[in-house]
Amino acid sequence: MTMRVLQVDIVVPVRNEEHDLAPSVRRLVGYLRQGFPFTARVTIADNGSTDGTWAIACQLARELDEVRAVHMEEPGRGRALRAIWSESDAEVLAYMDVDLSTDLNALLPLVAPLLSGHSDLAIGTRLAQGSRVIRGPKRELISRCYNILLRACMGARFSDAQCGFKAIRREQARALLPLTQDNGWFFDTELLVLAERAGLRIHEIPVDWIDDLDSRVDIVATALADLRGMARLGSGLARGSIKVPRLRGSSLAATRRSAELPLQIASFAVVGVASTIAYVLLYLLLRGVMPAQAANVLSLLLTAVANTAANRRLTFGISGRRHAARHQVKGLIAFGVGLALTSGALAALNHPSRSLEVSVLVAANLVATVIRFVLYRTWIFGKSRAGCDNSSPDKGEPIERDHLGSEAFDPHPPAAHAEPGPAPAARA
Question: Which residues are catalytic?
Answer without folding.
Answer: 188
